Amino acid sequence: MKVDHLPGVLEIERVSFPTPWSQQAFTYELTQNNFAYYLVALQQDRVVGYAGMWLVLDEAHITNVAVHPGYRGRKLGEALMVELMRQAVLRGAVRMTLEVRPSSSNARQLYKRLGFQEKGLRKKYYTDTNEDAIIMWLDLVPVSNEEK
To answer: Are the C-beta atoms of residues 135 and 122 closer than 8 Å to each other?
Structure first.
């Protein structure tokens, strides 16, 4: 993801989340946060999905994943997640975590399909709705030096 992608990212953010991230938040992630890694899915030059994570020591924390409503159901979210997982392993992560709303059944199904397991709950984590967050974890498969 580049700063030039932010108009498309923000459009998806607005239609996907009750409390969308601001342009300033994404700009900080891309230009100041050394732990951050973000990517976009493009259809020609249009941003149709994006995902991000923070890499801290040997753990990757998914910050966000979203696909434009007109492009959902095409496995773009899965492709974004698989690429984040690949990039996390290449950067030395051995575990990956994320929070997800209990009401986000499609996302939860995707994460379970990718091997994530529900390991905890953060009560009233989402301040916009007071919804809990399910904490999910995945042990990543290391990549040998030959595969890099």
So the answer is: yes
CB 137 within 8 A of CB 117: yes
50 catalytic per annotation: no
Summarize pLDDT for 29-46 with one digit per residue, the tens: 999 999 999 999 999 999
Q: How far apart are CA 132 and CA 146, in angstroms?
A: 42
Which of 11, 78, 99, 131 is flagged as catalytic?
A: 99
**Annotated catalytic residue: which of 37, 38, 50, 111?**
111
Q: Is 71 in the active site?
A: no
Rounded CA separation 67/35 (Å) = 23
Q: Which residue has the tokens 């890099």?
A: 148
Span 58-75, pLDDT tens digits: 999 999 999 999 999 999
